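Tokens in:
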């Protein structure tokens, strides 16, 4: 493992992020918010200087090993969260380091948890930077770098494998660099289409841009304290459509764009994903039935999608629903969208493999001499893949249980008096990159009142969940640093 190689990659990523920061002062200038511009420009300069200094000083890797790829991604995401906090701090939008890093972590990991009580009170430049962090983090800054920075081309496979949201990056072309470009083109095209459709409705152009950036990234940051509940029925249905698309595999979208019209129909995982969303929506509609039928259906579909896809928007305060629905909502935080989507959590393909593997194990118990193969649809799943998925699931649940235990201790030591529902849901929503939880951190609340030490824990869980555990484990594993 070479620190020089890792810092070279981190430097390139920071340089790209620093340049993207320059978009925020441009927005501030458009809205004549002159006081924010010096702080934003300074944040961009610091990030670019540090990034390109690391890039120039340290060696360019001839080719990254697998463990170097995972470690580079873990280190890069930590660096992004730290440097991404600079625009908040240097403009005074957020007054302390803990809250600024928390907000930046929630942005780049597309978690959507926020310490800002009223986004509408923030300046346009800060709101745009906040949304941009989620859009960049959605498909992954590492994959973006593979697509646009030739200097990372040699390690593309390892970086894509480490960062891609899902068990395996879907390889559309022989070269990962070309695959990344195609996925980003689909991502960009869908974002522009949503902007146009939302702008036609009751949103301003600025609101349409911000909500499109945070919908396609399944991030959930809004420009309004009421989230999507502050906008029209039309806007809510548009967001429902694009949340559905964002929770699907972008490789699948690309195949359809390439006129493989039956790609959606062939996908077993898509059927599982839509079935979970539909089933949860039906249960929510039945439990909240009353008043307007169309409103009940819309709120149920919206809430089911926003939790399963880990987007984190809200049209109603689902934290005020009956306790049974609250338990179901926490359970849905573990599901996630399809592999290759921008959603977080476990992902539906892993859940499908776990389910089919358990059925296979039961059949082996009943027929000890039989030979059984785990299949998802008609596709046989190798035993090694099954074992990998089972390991990931155990690690995920261990991270959740450990995080909940540590969170409870930190809250108790602070004397904050936070309730159990808030503690459990805040850990589940951070690890799953969802956004709002239940209790104090529900759709009508925020994470501002969480003790400072607990915020660092939750920010760490966001990164662990976004990178799907393994890169962080490798980064902090002593054995991988031994020669």
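Residues out:
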């Amino acid at each position: 493992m070479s620190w020089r190689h890792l810092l070279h990659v981190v430097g390139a990523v920071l340089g790209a992020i620093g340049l993207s920061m320059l978009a925020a002062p441009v927005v501030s200038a458009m809205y004549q918010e002159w006081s924010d511009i010096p702080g934003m420009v300074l944040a961009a300069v610091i990030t670019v200087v540090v990034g390109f200094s690391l890039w120039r000083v340290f060696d360019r890797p001839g080719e990254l090993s697998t463990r170097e790829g995972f470690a580079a991604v873990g280190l890069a995401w930590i660096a992004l969260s730290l440097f991404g906090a600079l625009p908040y701090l240097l403009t005074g939008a957020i007054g302390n380091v803990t809250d600024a890093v928390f907000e930046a972590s929630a942005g780049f990991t597309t978690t959507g948890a926020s310490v800002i009580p009223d986004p509408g009170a923030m300046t346009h430049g800060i709101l745009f930077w906040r949304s941009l962090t989620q859009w960049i983090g959605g498909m992954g800054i590492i994959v973006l770098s593979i697509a646009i920075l030739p200097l990372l081309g040699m390690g593309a496979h390892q970086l894509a494998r480490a960062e891609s949201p899902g068990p395996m990056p879907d390889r559309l072309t022989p070269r990962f660099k070309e695959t990344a470009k195609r996925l980003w083109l689909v991502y960009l095209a869908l974002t522009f289409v949503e902007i146009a459709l939302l702008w036609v409705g009751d949103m301003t152009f600025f609101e349409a841009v911000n909500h499109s950036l945070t919908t396609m990234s399944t991030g959930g940051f809004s420009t309004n304290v009421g989230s999507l509940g502050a906008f029209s029925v039309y806007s809510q249905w548009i967001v429902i459509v694009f949340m559905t698309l964002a929770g699907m595999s972008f490789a699948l979208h690309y195949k359809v764009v390439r006129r493989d019209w039956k790609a959606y129909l062939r996908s077993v995982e898509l059927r599982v994903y839509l079935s979970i969303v539909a089933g949860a929506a039906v249960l929510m509609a039945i439990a909240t039935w009353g008043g307007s039928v169309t409103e009940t259906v819309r709120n149920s579909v919206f809430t089911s999608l926003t939790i399963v896809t880990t987007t984190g928007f809200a049209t109603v305060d689902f934290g005020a629903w009956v306790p049974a629905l609250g338990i179901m909502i926490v359970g849905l935080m573990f599901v996630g969208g399809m592999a290759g989507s921008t959603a977080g959590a476990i992902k539906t393909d892993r859940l499908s493999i776990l389910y089919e593997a358990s059925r296979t194990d039961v059949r082996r118990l009943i027929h000890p001499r039989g030979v059984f193969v785990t299949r998802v649809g008609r596709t046989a799943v190798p035993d090694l893949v099954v074992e990998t998925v089972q390991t990931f699931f155990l690690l995920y649940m261990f991270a959740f249980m450990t995080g909940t235990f540590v969170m409870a201790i930190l809250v108790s030591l602070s004397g904050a008096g936070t309730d159990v529902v808030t503690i459990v849901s805040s850990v589940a929503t951070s690890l799953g990159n969802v956004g709002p939880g239940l209790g104090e951190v529900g759709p009508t609340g925020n994470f501002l009142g969480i003790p400072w030490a607990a915020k660092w824990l939750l920010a760490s869980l966001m990164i662990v969940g976004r990178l799907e555990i393994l890169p962080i484990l490798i980064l902090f594993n002593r054995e991988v640093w031994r020669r």
